[in-house]
Design brief:
- The chain is an alpha+beta fold.
- The chain has two domains: about 130 residues, Ribosomal Protein S8, Chain: A, domain 1, CATH 3.30.1370; about 90 residues, Fe-S cluster assembly (FSCA) (GMP Synthetase, Chain A, domain 3, 2-Layer Sandwich).
- About 45% of the residues lie in helices and about 20% in strands.
- The chain contains ten helices and nine strands.
- The strands form two sheets. It has a six-stranded antiparallel beta sheet with strand order 1-2-3-6-5-4. It has a three-stranded mixed beta sheet with strand order 7-8-9.
- Helix 3 packs across helix 6.
- The protein is elongated.
- It comes from Smittium megazygosporum.
- Belongs to the NifU family.
- One of its GO terms (cellular component) is mitochondrion.
- This is Scaffold protein Nfu/NifU N-terminal domain-containing protein.
- GO terms for molecular function: iron ion binding; iron-sulfur cluster binding.
Length: about 260
């Protein structure tokens, strides 16, 4: 459907190229002070199999356990608060660590986004402890019940044939040319909607893309430029909040307002 132009190189698309990988390993003193003794033997045997990979977002780290997290036909999943983590013991434990902001599940990796005030060298041992607890005992990271809870209802398709054809082209380009590079960097992009009258495409960024200083550059110089080139009907690409994100912000603002009214 599309001509054979190559996607912009990652160094351009994401503002900078980050390809370094490291394996989680810690001095014995740090392990013994930070991780329950019952897990030390597991860590010593298997920590080499959980790797970390840097992302364009310095506050996001990609954990690669060497096993499948979600199945090929399932969507990536993002958990953005302790409240959203309810019903998922693994996510609840992760959010029990101070400084954790977002948990993102990819096909074979987990991206964790932290508060800028916290250091990875202090967070890694606790995160590794929880991950080893689950991966070494084959406990489920995601259950069907929890996925169902976190999956928003599918919006009805537009009945306009021309619009549907354009949307299909947009989704194909996103899925084949753009999302693979973003997922490789520990994030994802979700199609939200397209306005045929204004040409505005609305998307939502997840995982390492959230809060990344280069995400706006990525959106405009990479994603928008490519979409406008292949699909002339697209005039602009905007990052928006999903309905669930907007609801969470609204609830937080209400709670904050109540606190201000307290004597």
């Amino acid at each position: 459907m599309f001509s054979s132009k190559h996607l912009l190189s990652k160094s351009v698309l994401f503002g900078k190229s980050v390809a370094s990988k490291s394996t989680l390993s810690f001095p014995n003193t740090i392990i013994r002070n930070s991780i329950p003794s019952s897990l030390i033997s597991h860590l010593q045997r298997r920590s080499l199999f959980i790797q970390t990979e840097q992302t364009p977002n310095e506050n996001a780290l990609k954990f690669i356990p060497g096993t499948e997290i979600i199945q090929e036909n399932e969507k990536t999943l993002e958990v953005k608060s302790r409240k959203e983590a309810i019903g998922n013991p693994f996510a609840t434990k992760i959010f029990g660590i101070p400084g954790i902001e977002t948990l993102f599940f990819g096909k074979d990796f987990i991206t964790i986004v932290k508060d800028p005030d916290y250091k990875w060298q202090l967070l890694k041992p606790e995160l590794l402890s929880i991950m080893m607890e689950y991966f070494s005992t084959n406990q489920p990271i995601l259950t069907d019940k929890y996925r169902e809870k976190m999956t928003k209802p599918t919006q009805p398709e537009n009945t306009d044939i021309d619009t549907n054809e354009i949307v299909a082209e947009i989704k194909e380009l996103l899925d084949t040319r753009i999302r693979p590079s973003i997922i490789e960097d520990g994030g994802d992009l979700e199609f939200i909607g397209f306005d045929i009258d204004t040409g505005i495409l609305r998307v939502s960024l997840h995982g390492a893309c959230r809060g990344c200083s280069s995400s706006e550059v990525t959106l405009k110089n990479g994603i928008e430029s490519m979409l406008k080139y292949y699909i002339p009907e697209v005039s602009s690409v905007e990052s928006v909040q999903t309905e669930l994100e907007a609801l969470n912000v609204s609830e937080f603002e209400k709670f904050e307002s109540k606190l201000k009214k307290l004597p």
